[in-house]
Amino acid sequence: MIDFKVLAEKYDTPLYVYDFAHITRQYEELKKAFSGRKSLISYAVKANSNLSVISHLAELGSGADCVSIGEVRRALISGIPKYKIIFSGVGKRDDEIEEALREDILLLNLESEAEMERVEEIAEKIGRQARISIRVNPNIDPKTHPYISTGLHENKFGVDLETAKRMYIRANNSAHLDPVGVHFHIGSQLTELEPIKEAAAIVADLVRSLKAIKIDIRFFDVGGGIGIVYDDEKTIEPYDYAQAIFSVLHGLDVTVVCEPGRFMVGNSGFFLTRVLYEKVNEGKRFIIVDGGMNDLLRPSLYNAYHRVEVLGKSGACSEADLVGPVCESGDFFAKSRMLPATEPGDLVIVHSAGAYGFVMASNYNTRPRPAEVAIVDGKERCIRAKESFEDLIRLEKMCL
Ligand SMILES: *Cc1c(COP(=O)(O)O)cnc(C)c1O
């Protein structure tokens, strides 16, 4: 059991706490599910990019899926081997492309013809051959929140099947491009298997048609997106997920790549915040805490549900909004939630905060970002210190 009270006293609130044993279990379960074939689990670094989180996954054997050169650098210094690093993203700068090519990472994942031309030019300029995959948009509705849905043509991600095929043929004829992978990622927090299976079947057909014209795709990247339980969702079992993908791959000798972010770290994380006071406005009860939307944005950004718990309080509950001190009406963690009566200093735990939590934190309202603490083999490790006021103003200059 994690002693949240002790941690909150030692590291101050708001605070992020991650249970690394949970991350290990998630990785091992997924790896086992994919054991029937060659596979690579490439952790989507953007979900939680703390160096200790990445190096923990590196030790387990994970690769990294990165969406900026900064994330590629994080992966490299955390000990992820370069041959397990993928660089994705809809817009990459020339300097990012060049650095990725020089680092000789596994794959650059491309999302447009224009991007492919840039990669070819840069590869030629520095005398390299770029290993690439192409992100296909299979036009499947993933049945998730529109902000985290990416697999429909109306989204900015990937290219349609016809364009992809044209790109593969061009790449195959280029001395500086080596088309070895195909990629799709239809959305996040997916809780239904069928859309993933449909998308995989469409993309597997593309791979077979490329094989027929002697373009040999070796990496079949199914993206990330496996959902987790925030409330009472029914989620996808890793075994069923892997089997659904395997079932469409007949006749193909490919390494299955999967890029989970949320699945790996989401439920490892807890966000701790303290009650400042309660107030009642026109009969509506508010619990005001010292953490805000700048620390944990998901409720404000996606209207996301997080389970909240007032530590050590089990008395009668009544409806309340759990809100932060930031000057925005959107600054809340829970709305109209049944919560016990609280007193100043009570500790509130916001669950499932390990993914898209700290990484989305900002300094809005000149608030320092919280510390991050990991629980490793039963021991606590501070893996990022709380920012100071000096940290916040360090790069600013007064011009008068
Ligand atoms: C965001 C993202 C992921 C990870 O998504 P999760 O829902 O956290 O698993 C994987 N691949 C790509 C290309 C992404 O953009």
Explain this structure:
The protein has 2 domains: 4-15 and 267-391, Lyase, Ornithine Decarboxylase, Chain A, domain 1, CATH 2.40.37.10; 34-260, Alpha-Beta Barrel (TIM Barrel). It has 12 helices and 17 strands. It has helices at 4-11, 20-33, 51-60, 69-77, 94-103, 113-125, 161-172, 194-212, 238-246, 262-265, 298-302, 389-393, and strands at residues 15-19, 39-44, 63-66, 85-87, 107-110, 130-135, 177-183, 219-221, 255-258, 269-281, 284-289, 308-310, 317-323, 332-340, 347-350, 371-376, 379-384. Strands 1, 10, 11, 12, 13, 14, 15, 16 and 17 form a 9-stranded mixed β-sheet that branches. Strands 2-3-4-5-6-7-8-9 form an 8-stranded parallel β-barrel, surrounded by 7 helices. The site of pyridoxal-5'-phosphate (PLP) has 17 residues, from helix 10.
List the SSEs and their pairings:
Blueprint: H1 4-11, E1 15-19, H2 20-33, E2 39-44, H3 51-60, E3 63-66, H4 69-77, E4 85-87, H5 94-103, E5 107-110, H6 113-125, E6 130-135, H7 161-172, E7 177-183, H8 194-212, E8 219-221, H9 238-246, E9 255-258, H10 262-265, E10 269-281, E11 284-289, H11 298-302, E12 308-310, E13 317-323, E14 332-340, E15 347-350, E16 371-376, E17 379-384, H12 389-393
Parallel strand pairs: 1-16, 2-3, 2-9, 3-4, 4-5, 5-6, 6-7, 7-8, 8-9, 11-13
Antiparallel strand pairs: 1-10, 10-11, 10-15, 12-15, 13-14, 16-17
Helix pairs in contact: 2-3, 2-9, 5-6
The structure holds pyridoxal-5'-phosphate (PLP).
